[in-house]
Structure formats: structure tokens, C-alpha cells
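User: Sequence for phosphoglycolate phosphatase below. C-alpha cells please.
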Amino acid sequence: MTAYSAFIFDLDGTLIDSAPDIAEALNIGFAQNGWPKLEAHFVEKFLGNGPRRLIIDILDELGVTYDELTLQQTLQCYQQAYLANPAGHTRIFPHVREDLEALKSAGIKLGICTNKTHAITAKVLQQLGLSELFDVALGADAVPACKPDPKHLLAVADAMNLVSGGWAYVGDTPIDQQAAVGADVPFFVVPWGGGPEVEISAKQRLSRLADLLQV
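Assistant: C-alpha cells for phosphoglycolate phosphatase:
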């Protein structure tokens, strides 16, 4: 049995593959500006830092020039489009649902710390039928500072009434890793999403979430 009483999870790339829906919503805003159409596999590389940074990083990678007004308009368009249809093409990674259910059945508290907006996070979880598995889920705009700032992760832990030393964070990117290090909590990485690219010890790599029952 695990030594932890709770686990907090990142969402995109850790529990769900949301890149197709994110790309679709981005493309609505990009099309209005005459910018290139984005493929999901391209968008996936830039996920993790929240919507504003996502758009900036993609535009910089493409060499597209923009001003602050255009950026804000594109961001607003993206968020409206994504909220309207946040899970039409999103899938839960294999075995994630059953493994989360196993953790919950074992009496382990579950939370989510994600750089998605809070409203979109709630809607995605509801549409995928995952809401009831989590005690707390806090999006980036529900906290004073978002990942990689550890205060985001610690805010989720506080809302769950977790005790230091009794919980760990699970993610798939260096951003998640930085948040865990900053919060001084153990970190485990999944083998999908951006997980294979994270530099970490073998004992912190999961083959699936059910492994958490034995850490």
C-alpha cells in the first residue's frame, strides 16, 4: 500500500489528451488573423504554461508578429471557443479512469492542479465523467499564481487539508516538476504526454497510475 494519503495531478498530458480540442479552439482565433492552421501534434509541444503563454510560444515558434491588442483578442476568442466545446475530441489516457477509481476506492484523496482556466477545467472533468473522483480541482485563474509557481500546487493541497509529507504531485512536464520541487513535495511522472522527455530518476517514473498504490 502507498505511503501517501493523497495525490494531486496535472490534467493535460497527464490524465487526458486534450490537444485536439485545444488546437481546434486556437484555430478559430488564428483564422481570424490569417495565421497558419495548427495541428494537434504541434500544439501539444507547447502545453503546460496556460493559455496566454501557449499562444505566445506558438506565435514565436511560427515567426508571426503580433501586438498586445491582437494577442488579447486571440486569447479571448480561444477561451470562448474552448469553453463552448472543451471535450469533443479529448480522450482519457488508457487505464487512467480505472486507476483513479482504484486510488479513490483505497481511500486516497485526489486533486488537480492545472494551468487550464478554472471554468474549462470543471467543464472538461464533468463532460468526461471524472468530476466525482476529485476532492479539489483548481485552474490557473482560481489562484494568485499559477504553475510553475509552487503556490498553485500548495493552494490545492491547502484546499484538500493535506498534511506535509503525506502527498505527492503527478505530472508530465518540467513545469509540473518545477512546481513540485518548489513546493518541496515528491514528484512522479507519467509515461505519456511529455513524460518521456522529463529528466528524472527511474523510481519516479510510472508505467501507469496504478503504480501509485505501491510507492
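The chain has a mean pLDDT of 96.
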